[in-house]
Amino acid sequence: MLRALFTDHPASVGETYVDHFGVATRFGWRLTRGGVACMLHGALPFVFKTAGSDTVRDLHAELVAKRTAARAAQTQMMTVEYVI
């Protein structure tokens, strides 16, 4: 039961716990870096003009690509072709 708390979600996105920890941590650091850049941009409008939107765009593209690959893999596993 306790193990499922740590493995169900990572498995649902095609990752192990360790894989998911790495991906989520990396995303978190990238979001933090983008957020700091946005705050600095608020105070100093001439710096980091596109850092926030670049971060969001890049992370979104990565998530969409990962979901698309996971769906394709799942669809392929469910599709069985018989050759006689």
3D architecture notes:
This protein has one domain (7-77). The radius of gyration is 19 Å and the shape is elongated. It is mainly α. The protein has helices at 2-12, 17-43, 51-78. 79% of the residues lie in helices and 0% in strands. The chain has three helices and no strands. The model has no long low-confidence stretch (mean pLDDT 89).
Please tally the β strands and state the result: 0
Percentage of residues in strands: under 5%
Inertia-based shape: elongated
Biggest β-sheet: count, sense, barrel?
A: none
Mean pLDDT: 89
What is the count of distinct domains? 1
Give helix % range: over 70%
Q: Which structural class should the secondary elements be placed in?
A: mainly alpha
SSE string, helix = H, strand = E? HHH
What oligomeric state best describes the polypeptide chains here?
Answer: single chain
Rounded Rg? 19 Å
How far apart lie the N and C ends?
44 Å
Low-confidence stretches: none
Question: How does the SSE layout of this entry go?
Answer:
Elements: H1 2-12, H2 17-43, H3 51-78
